[in-house]
Amino acid sequence: MSALTDALGMEIPVFQAPMAGGADTPELVAEVCRAGGMGFLGCAYSTPTQILSMARAVRSRTSRPYGVNLFAPAAFTVDDEVLAGARSSLAHHYATFGLEPPAVLSEPLVFEAQFEAVLATGAAAFSFTLGMISEDCIRSGQRAGMVVLGTATTVDEARALERAGVDAVIAQGSEAGGHRGSFLRDPASCLVDTSSLVQGIREALTIPVVASGGIMDGRGI
């Protein structure tokens, strides 16, 4: 792990999880970086223009290295009828609190365009989840000076990521909240606890492993 933290200029081996949709802000990312960890912008739901704007906001607050995260391309397969049904089902909750339902994106999210914006941010790290990206993308990120990390929920997924050329693997254990990053099997069949998953991946791989899931306090860290 020291090789990874050294490469990223981290003083403490703690990564702030990227949380697309507004849960992480440029201010939060910058504060984590200033504290010696690695702050990450979750940009999966952001347009290229928004990605560049958030990156500038981080850089205006700190000169320390930070990271950017995207969903893999396959994650953007959306059924319009399913989306409309979900919006309809949630409408009364928004009405209860006097909120406007979220608007449908006027600009479609295209991974290739998002990734080009990420390459232009000057970020020190790029991570992806919910699938695999091409080896060309991985190499492009590395040529741009980024450490590239992929997300795995099983040892087999971690092996696939290592073969593709990533610099490190994020081991997402079953305790992790939010999206499940599984991409080789159904997520429900990939619920390995974080401790066991990290141990299994470390034994199978030669690249660094980052634990993700169920880390709630100093003891967990």
Alpha plus pi helix count: 8
The secondary structure category is alpha/beta
Terminus-to-terminus distance: 13 Å
Rounded average pLDDT: 92
Helix content: 25-40%
Determine the strand fraction and express it as a percent band.
5-15%
**Helix and strand element order:** HHEHEHHEHEHEHE
Main sheet properties: 6 strands, parallel
Whole-angstrom Rg: 18 Å
Specify the oligomeric state: single chain
Spatial shape: globular
Strand line-up of the largest beta sheet: 1-2-3-4-5-6
Low-confidence stretches: none
What is the tally of beta strands?
A: 6
Summarize the structure in short.
The chain contains eight helices and six strands; from the N terminus they run ααβαβααβαβαβαβ. The protein has 221 residues and is α/β, with parallel strands linked by helices. The two termini are 13 Å apart.
Describe it for me?
The chain is α/β, with parallel strands linked by helices and 221 residues long. It is built from eight helices and six strands, in the order H-H-E-H-E-H-H-E-H-E-H-E-H-E. A six-stranded parallel beta sheet has the order 1-2-3-4-5-6. Strand 5 (168-172), helix 8 (194-204) and strand 6 form a beta-alpha-beta unit. The longest helix has 17 residues, at 80-96. It is globular. The relative contact order is 0.13. The model has no long low-confidence stretch (mean pLDDT 92).
